[in-house]
Amino acid sequence: MxxxxxxxxxxxxxxxxxxxxxRSSFGLSLQPMSMDLGSGREAFTLALAIQNLVxxxxxxxxxxxxxxxxxxxxVVAGGALYAVARYLMATTASAFELYLSAAC
Length: 104
Hints:
There is one protein chain. The protein is mostly helical. 88% of the residues lie in helices and 0% in strands.
């Protein structure tokens, strides 16, 4: 396997592992967040659906940012934005705030 391919796989794997690890644990938060917000599972699952739509729609823009400013800066900025959005998602007080924080 070419050295460039190994570097790409080695660099991308931690990013995917962190992202998937966080996203795969959302199911554990469903019941506590639903009880805390006083809503059913619909509010939490709608927030995750909004998050998936925003992530898909923003990919071309992050690709353009990576072309313009470099991959490292874009990945760091995206990771920071993701961390802030997850913090906001954990500290929401209403379903509407949950939707807004999931869209970040």
